[in-house]
């Protein structure tokens, strides 16, 4: 297979710039979603959770989001290795996923969109079902959208790739591969 394009987000985008874009999406998404839901549920008495539970849910969102990337690939039969790394400079643990064989573009796009669609649908459903806890569900929705910014950037890069390409992960990002002509 020939490499059509290599995508490395750290080289193409500054990590601090990506973090700023992600935080901007979190804030904008929360403001707009809360405004829409508060107009619909204008006479609701909001319930309170402790700050510890709120931070606990938000800290669990990153591993759940990452594991939801893996589920569609498992159904296709791709073996995935997950490494949990804790770097003292980053202050937060990171989960590195690596699949062992190249994956088709459509399956990879589905795997990238699955956590965003699943968690956002569940949080919208929770906000509609339990209006007193609406802002907690919208907080999860907005944080998940902030996490999905990285996925959307990858999807933007993949949108120009040929349909019959394959995606392979390397230590710096992803490679878009094409079959060699015979």
Automatic annotation (TrEMBL):
Pfam families: DUF3267. The chain crosses the membrane at residues 20-40, 60-80, 107-128, 134-153. Keywords: Membrane, Transmembrane, Transmembrane helix. This is Putative zincin peptidase. It comes from Alteribacillus bidgolensis.
